[in-house]
């Protein structure tokens, strides 16, 4: 049951990471040639790492429980990169907070959405670490509570 909860919880995280990467790519393609500061390298790294963590978690979820520390490590690194991306986006040359005009232009709206997705990625990586911990605890509870076979009992008495 916990494995299915983990899988269902992973799908929105994966989709948000893809949207984060797509929006960063669009920003770089649209305004990167004009202003190289619009190519957010840490955003690309954080989004790519978040996608990799989600793919690893979803593919190995049912096969191998020992992957959980690796996914947690990838989530921590993605959180750090997203944290570094916050001031990079907020303090870019065309910062939406410095504009005296209350109407946001196209690039300012995209920066604002990218900033919000950056915060969402941090929150989702924390949720991902929680899901990994929940899945790990559930697996250890299942291992403790399952009945042992006669061969396992005999082996434990011999040692």
Helical content band: over 70%
Instruction: Report the sheet-strand fraction.
Output: under 5%
The average pLDDT is 75
The number of distinct helices, counting runs of at least 4 residues, comes to 5
Characterize the overall form. Answer: elongated
Outline the biggest β-sheet: none
Low-confidence runs: 138-145
Radius of gyration: 21 Å
Report the order of strands and helices.
Answer: HHHHH
Which structural class do the helices and strands define? mainly alpha
What number of structural domains do the residues give?
Answer: 1
Q: What is the tally of beta strands?
A: 0
* Distance separating the two termini: 34 Å
Keywords: Membrane, Transmembrane, Transmembrane helix
Protein name: MARVEL domain-containing protein
Walk me through this protein's architecture:
This protein has 159 residues and is mostly helical. It has one domain. It has five helices and no strands. Helix 1 packs antiparallel against helix 2. About 5% of the residues have low confidence.
């Amino acid at each position: 049951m916990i494995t299915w909860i983990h899988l269902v919880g992973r799908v929105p995280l994966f989709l948000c990471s893809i949207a984060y990467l797509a929006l960063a790519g669009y920003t770089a393609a649209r305004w990167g040639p004009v202003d190289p500061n619009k190519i957010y390298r840490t955003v690309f790294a954080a989004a790519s790492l978040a996608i990799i963590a989600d793919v690893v978690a979803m593919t190995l979820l049912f096969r191998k429980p020992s992957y959980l520390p690796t996914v947690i490590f990838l989530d921590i690194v993605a959180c750090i990169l997203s944290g570094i991306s916050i001031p990079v986006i907020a303090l870019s040359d065309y910062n939406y907070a410095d504009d005296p005009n209350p109407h946001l232009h196209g690039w300012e709206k995209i920066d604002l959405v990218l900033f919000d997705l950056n915060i969402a990625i941090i929150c989702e990586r924390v949720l991902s670490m929680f899901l990994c911990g929940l899945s790990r605890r559930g697996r250890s509870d299942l291992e403790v509570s399952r009945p042992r076979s006669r061969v396992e009992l005999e082996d434990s008495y011999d040692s």
